[in-house]
Amino acid sequence: MGDINFLCMQPSERRSCKPTLPGARRWLICDEQTPTTSLLVGVVELPEQGSTISLHYHSSVEEFQYIVSGSGVVWDAKGNEYPLSPGTCVYCGPGPKGAHGYQNTGTSPLVILFIYPSTGGKPPDVMLVDE
What we know:
Elements: E1 15-17, E2 25-30, E3 39-46, E4 52-57, E5 63-69, E6 72-76, E7 81-84, E8 89-92, E9 100-104, E10 110-117, E11 127-128
Antiparallel strand pairs: 1-2, 2-3, 3-10, 4-9, 4-11, 5-8, 5-10, 6-7, 6-9
């Protein structure tokens, strides 16, 4: 990518990729194939009511999520459930205490923007929590 310090990416330019957890669709915005040096950014979608992302964590990185559209719930490591709607922000620390899982409870897709710190835009590990 050379010496690029700015990138404006249209929705059609996002790269669809295999989700790391079943039940979701995922598109990457910023990763090791774009000019990032410290971020992994993308959009995950739970397409229909009842779709879930299993309770999981990332062992060495924190994560920020922003609800773009739809409605649902997020669970934390202790099993607490929090409602989600557009504009809701979720922060998850690294390790088991930052575990999180999602479910679409609405009639339209639940769309979540995610951001991780990541040297060179490489994806973090995903550790499933035995439920």
